TrEMBL record:
Disordered as annotated region, ranges: 37-64, 107-138, 185-205
Coiled coil: 291-318
Protein name from the UniProt record: LisH domain and HEAT repeat-containing protein KIAA1468
GO annotation (BP), single: intracellular cholesterol transport
Cellular compartment(s): Golgi apparatus, trans-Golgi network; Recycling endosome
Keyword list, A-Z: Coiled coil, Endosome, Golgi apparatus, Lipid transport, Repeat, Transport
The keyword Coiled coil is annotated on this UniProt entry: yes
Bias kind Polar residues: ranges: 109-119
Predominant location category: Golgi
Native source organism of the sequence: Lates calcarifer (Barramundi)
First and last residues of every HEAT repeat: 859-897
Entry's Gene Ontology cellular component terms: recycling endosome; trans-Golgi network
Length: 1071
């Protein structure tokens, strides 16, 4: 309660003061008279009746207690020198808004707290009542006292500053005198000079130890005992020298530098020591430089005193000049009748002034005629006028009123008026745009910062609540943004209850995407300030709810703001890796168990994307809980090892605190992993021993044919490995995958195959882990893995879905095209026909994304090599790849080479009875025909399909016949949607369909009905096309004639004169 300037009064006991007050009040009650019989105080109390307080409220005695004047109590406290009590009494009155002049004058006068003489009093001197006060040890006790706070006039502040400077000057002189007294006393305790001469002349006689030397040696001996673990001896030594403080060297003497320890003195005993200083300085420790410094400060204070005195004189002269100017101006410029020089009656003056055209009857007239004369009246006037001003301001310019409205709402004394002004603020613009909303939000934050949490809760939040269901989305958007912007300025109870409920309601009920997006961002801000652990489950449910939102912009806001803020909170709670991440993993596993017959890929994407957003905070937890954290020293910028964050909140440097600290931690992190291991590193051990095995097990359970799931998990592992670093990936992640995959040839089972290689583990490991780093050794490892997988799957006759998924995922990135072609060339030249077949089929997947140059240089030569393979199965495997080239490539030379190769398959007699080859060709034609070049389709595909259909009519083996017929049916169904010329339709398409119908009549009657319908439709098209061609030629000719006529007509119309003959010639020319 007491200011620091009056610290010298603290020795008085508070218990003593309270006892004194109780005693006097009790005496006053028993005697029924005023215990302070001071006539001057009573007279002042009578002169100031309003400055009394009712002491019954603080008196612990009976209700019938008499009231005592505050001033009387203050006078008695000062008289009896109860200065601390008087100061506390004065402070409490100030806090209650009741300033007592007696106490104010007493404590603002520095003369009440200084000695009357410069000589320090003796130790046994006792000051009587009213005597000078003992001074505190510091010479700057009163230097920070703001005496101008209670100033009544303009000159008092300068006078009091001068008084304070004079007081400090006197105290500095007292300090110098005290130092000189100590010097004299120390000199008297010295050994007489004659005795010192005797000691020097007789070396065998040792000079007695001086007090200063004894204290110094005691300090060094105690220090030696402590450093060498002689603690009990040190304690005993300290007890025997209880007059010395062994923890502070300054206790030995004034301004004496500390010597080296005993060990250093022993080692240097043979070397000459530097010459000692003067006897007075060494023995007593008085540094005359300190005295000179103090005298210099005294001279500076004197100069400052003189300059302040000159400023006071200048201010006094200015005051006199201002008074003179004011008098002159008043005399010359105030109207004569106001100076009462005219003897007009008040009634006449009023009647005379009534002829002035003034209007004070209306509201505005009353406001204009009543000029505000204080800050409060200005606020009242603005509160009355603003509701009438706002409706008359243009909508596009109303944001200019925001500062005025907010300032008035902050300072207006009436709650009702403040509520009306804030209502105007939130309804200022009917549908505020982005810039206007930002301006209103800026004003709301400034208002909240100015008025504090209580008024924000009472005045701003109701305005938000009123508009939570407003019909305009822009107004609801303002509410959602306000909840986030005001979160730091709200009471924590309201922040985690009312505001959280408001945002949750808007998230579930609002139909506008932009409103829900703002709600999610505000929820993220709330999660950054919430501190109630019981709200964790509600936050987790809000995260899942917002992640399932149908709007992409809402989901993006979840990943950018909400999840990082929620992860930061769970990190503080210690539940990021113990609750949040395990909860998401459990939901993924449950989803996989429920989706055995059909996986909900959208939900899997939701959970996996949330896990992916938690990778940066998880890595930050690993770094912050590492064994080396305390050894981190700031370094420069970090290398670019992290993937680009989705938002600044997902930047690991922002989570850690700075890029320099992150750089230092990363260096120690890599060193720890490479040289010291993970012993005692609980957070990283959890990642290695629990998180990674669970993720790898989940990966093995997803469907490898689901390209979406493979892509999601590949991206997750890529970000995971990039974040945790190359050393972690090589030493912790890759070994766990390799242990499960086991790619050595000894594990190849030719009968059943290797089950794990057929699952999604292969593509996710290849595309998510092995592609994290793109150096030469990493690329070699990826090539070797893909070659091993291709060989293993081929030799074990296992499905190729996992290898296909790897090629599809990698083929989407052109960076890996050369690498994949290297892998396929390994298969082309492999000794096993099974591997060569696999390589041929993989070309089909790769051709679509590779540029035509690579196709011409690398793909087509490899396929032609395989098409002449001794094994017929290898040659057949190249057909889908050739068909894909026909579908995607535009170079005529390439197309001709492929066309020739396919023609050799169809026309070479050695392939006439190759049922599987014909099946593959028909399947390929049906797949690529609709997208192939029309000329290739009309001249090559359809004629050869016709030949195959005709040949199938004479097929003797029924199973082969039905297989060919079924494939032909699929091919013709796909090609029937294409535009086919009349010639090809008549010569090849319809005859092929009729041949196929002949087969289906015997083999599959239900297909025969469909084929008959298709034939009928094609015949109708042919007939209609013939009629349309005839009519079309006529219509084309007529349209050409019509266009020509119209053009000529319009051109001639501009050249016409009034002659009607020329107008007739225009139409005559086109008859």
């Amino acid at each position: 309660m007491c200011p620091a300037q009056f610290s010298f009064l603290y020795p008085l006991s508070n218990h003593f003061i309270l006892a004194w007050i109780a005693k006097n009040l009790y005496s006053a009650k028993m005697a029924s008279v005023n215990p302070f019989n001071l006539s001057d105080s009573e007279e002042e109390a009578e002169r100031r009746p309003n400055e009394t307080v009712d002491t019954e409220r603080s008196n612990p005695f009976s209700p019938g207690e008499t009231r005592v004047s505050v001033d009387v109590i203050a006078a008695q406290l000062l008289r009896d020198q109860y200065i601390l009590t008087a100061l506390e009494f004065h402070t409490e009155l100030l806090e209650a808004g009741r300033e007592l002049p007696r106490l104010r004058d007493y404590f603002s006068n520095p003369g009440n707290f200084e000695r009357q003489s410069g000589t320090p009093p003796a130790k046994d001197q006792v000051l009587g009542p009213g005597g000078p006060l003992n001074r505190a040890g510091s010479i700057s006790t009163l230097d920070s006292l703001d005496f101008a706070r209670y100033s009544d006039d303009g000159n008092r502040e300068s006078d009091e500053r001068v008084a304070v400077l004079e007081f400090e000057l006197r105290k500095a002189k007292e300090t110098i005198q005290a130092l000189r007294a100590n010097l004299t006393q120390a000199a008297e305790s010295e050994v007489p000079s004659q005795e010192r001469k005797n000691f020097k002349s007789s070396p065998e006689i040792q000079e007695p130890i001086r007090p200063l030397e004894k204290r110094a040696l005691n300090f060094l001996v105690n220090e030696y005992l402590l450093k060498n673990e002689y603690k009990l001896s040190s304690i005993t030594f300290s007890d025997e020298n209880d007059d010395q403080d062994f923890e502070l060297w300054d206790d030995v003497g004034l301004n004496i530098p500390k010597p080296p320890d005993l060990l250093q003195l022993y080692r240097n005993c043979g070397t000459p020591l530097p010459s000692p200083r003067s006897t007075a300085d060494v023995s007593v420790g008085v540094d005359f430089e300190v005295v000179q410094e103090l005298e210099y400060q005294i001279s500076l204070l004197n100069n400052e005193k003189q300059s302040l005195a000159e400023q006071i004189k200048k201010l006094q002269r200015c005051v006199h000049e201002c008074i003179f100017v004011f008098t002159v101006v008043t005399f010359f410029f105030v109207p004569c009748w106001l100076r009462c020089l005219r003897k007009l009656s008040p009634a006449f003056q009023q009647a005379l002034l009534s002829f002035c055209r003034m209007c004070s009857d209306s509201r505005l007239g009353a406001e204009v005629s009543r000029i505000a004369d204080s800050e409060e009246s200005v606020m009242l006037m603005l509160g009355r006028c603003l509701p009438h001003i706002v409706p008359n301001v243009l909508l596009a310019k109303r944001e200019e009123l925001i500062p005025l409205i907010l300032c008035t709402a902050c300072l207006h004394p009436e709650p009702k008026e403040r509520d009306q002004l804030l209502h105007i603020l939130f309804n200022l613009i009917k549908r505020p745009d982005d810039e206007q909303r930002q301006m209103i939000l800026t004003g709301c934050v400034a208002f909240a910062r100015h008025v504090g949490p209580t008024r924000v809760e009472a005045e701003l939040l109701p305005q938000c609540w009123e508009q939570i269901n407003h019909k305009y989305p822009e107004r609801r958007l303002l509410v959602a943004e306000s909840c986030g912007a005001l979160a730091p300025y709200l009471p924590k109870e309201i922040r985690s209850s009312l505001v959280l409920s408001m945002l949750q309601q808007m998230l579930t009920e609002d139909k506008a995407d932009m409103v829900r997006e703002a709600v999610v961002k505000s929820l993220g801000i709330i999660m950054g300030y919430i501190d109630d652990p019981d709200k964790y489950s509600q936050g987790f449910e809000l995260m899942l709810l917002s992640l399932g939102d149908p709007s992409e912009r809402v989901v993006s806001a979840v990943h950018q703001v909400f999840i990082p803020a929620f992860a930061a909170w769970t990190t503080e709670l210690g539940t990021l890796h113990t609750a949040l991440i395990p909860s998401l993993l459990a939901r993924i596993e449950k989803l996989l168990m429920q989706g055995e017959h059909g996986l909900d890929e959208h939900k899997l994407h939701v959970f996996l994307s949330a896990l992916q957003s938690l990778i940066p905070p998880l890595f930050a937890v690993v770094l912050q809980n590492a064994p080396f954290t305390s050894r981190a020293k700031l370094h420069g910028d970090i290398p670019r090892r992290f993937p680009k964050p989705a938002s600044p909140l997902q930047d690991v440097a922002a989570i850690i605190g700075s890029r320099e600290m992150l750089s230092a931690l990363l260096l120690l992190y890599d060193h720890q992993l490479e040289h010291e291991g993970t012993t005692g590193w609980d957070s990283l051990l959890w990642v290695v021993n629990q998180l990674l095995p669970q993720l790898i097990e989940i990966v093995g359970r997803i469907n490898v044919t689901s390209s979406t799931c493979v892509h999601e998990f590949s991206r997750f592992f890529w970000r995971f490995c990039r974040t945790f670093g190359k050393i972690f990936t090589n030493t912790k992640v890759k070994p766990q995958f390799q242990e499960i995959l086991r790619l050595s040839e000894e594990n190849v089972d030719a009968s059943a195959g290797n089950g794990i290689l057929t699952k999604a583990t292969v593509p996710i490991y290849a595309t998510g882990v092995l592609t994290c780093y793109n150096q030469e050794e990493d690329r070699k490892l990826l090539v070797g893995f893909l070659e091993d997988v291709m060989t293993t799957l081929s030799l074990s006759h296992a499905p190729l879905d996992s290898l296909k998924a790897s090629f599809v995922e990698l083929g989407a990135n052109p960076v890996y095209h050369e690498l994949l072609l290297t892998v396929l060339w390994y298969g082309v030249v492999h000794t096993s026909a099974l591997v060569r077949c696999t390589a041929a089929r993989m070309f089909e997947l790769l051709v679509k994304g590779v540029n035509e140059t690579l196709v011409a240089q690398r793909v087509v030569p490899a396929l032609i090599t395989l098409s002449s393979d001794p094994e017929i199965s290898v040659r057949i495997s190249t057909i889908p790849a050739f068909g894909t080239i026909m579908e995607t490539v535009t170079q005529k030379e390439l197309l001709e080479r492929v066309k020739m190769q396919l023609a050799s398959f169809l026309e070479d007699p050695q392939y006439q009875d190759q049922h599987s080859l014909h099946m593959e060709i028909i399947r390929t034609f049906g797949r690529v025909g609709p997208n192939a070049e029309p000329r290739f389709r009309d001249e090559f595909v359809l004629p050869h399909l016709h030949k195959l259909a005709l040949a199938n009519n004479s097929q003797a083996v029924e199973s082969k016949r039905i297989d060919i017929a079924t494939q032909l049916f699929e091919a013709y169904s796909a090609l029937s949607c294409c535009f086919i010329s009349e010639e090809v339709m008549v010569n090849h398409f319809l005859p092929g369909l009729r041949c196929l119908r002949t087969d289906m009549e015997q083999l599959s009657p239900e297909h025969e009905v469909i084929l008959s319908s298709m034939i009928k439709e094609c015949e109708i098209k042919v007939e209609n096309r013939g009629m349309a061609d005839a009519q079309g030629s006529m219509s084309i000719a007529s349209s050409l004639v019509g266009e020509d006529a119209k053009t000529k007509f319009l051109s001639k119309m501009g050249q016409l004169t009034t002659s009607g003959a020329m107008l007739a010639n225009v139409f005559q020319r086109k008859k």
